[in-house]
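Memo to structure team: turn this sequence into structure tokens by end of day. - J.P.
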Amino acid sequence: MWFLVALPAVAAGLLAFAYVRARRAHTRALEERGWLLERERETAARNAVDAERARIAHDLHDIVSHNVSVMVIQAGAARQVLAAEPEQAEAALLAVEAAGRDTMAELRHLLGLLAPKASGEEDDALAPQPSLTRLSELIDRIAFAGLPVEVRISGDPYPLPTGLDVTAYRIIQEALTNALKHGDGVQAEVTVRYAPHALRVEVLNSGPSVLTGSGRSVVSDGDGRGLLGLKQRVAVYGGQLDARRRLGGGFRVRAKLPLERP
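Reply from structure team:
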């Protein structure tokens, strides 16, 4: 009889023990899962930082390449007019000096990017962000280098996603640098259109150039960087880029960058 009385108590004790054991196992599993999730978040954060560094390094490479192109062109111009027109030679050398200073600043950014703080903290100051809000600075540098540029802005400017903003700036920079290299310095035209669901950018080199010809697309011309790299970048945002010679002489680069707005 006592066995029948004790059996429920023993069963209850076993159930309680099993419950406590299962509860502890569940708690340990949750703790382990939380630890794994935290490690995954840390890994994802590090990967995101590495990807951002790579993107910034690519942008810095473009900036330095642009400035060096300006320096080479202006140094050549100074050499040609040094004896006959010293004032123009001085202006060209000032352009070389300004571009050189910009290049050194960007190289310092790049070195800082490749050598992060020992604490692992990121410094936003090491991440220069080209933007259409800085377009006037680019236009001034190009004009000072010898290529007059007319700028037209249509529509009401609105904030752009950072990557798309950088891409639009890069398109204009690359097109104007090409016009400066290959054109005769007549004039370039830049048009930026803020449409409701897309940003449109167009750069025209209005003068005759070594690129005059059939009017076919020449995105793949050159060393494979430049316009081809821009076409790939534009494709990331679902956009389109067309670069071609103009039948009447000169060059045209046109891009459409779709965007989602609330």
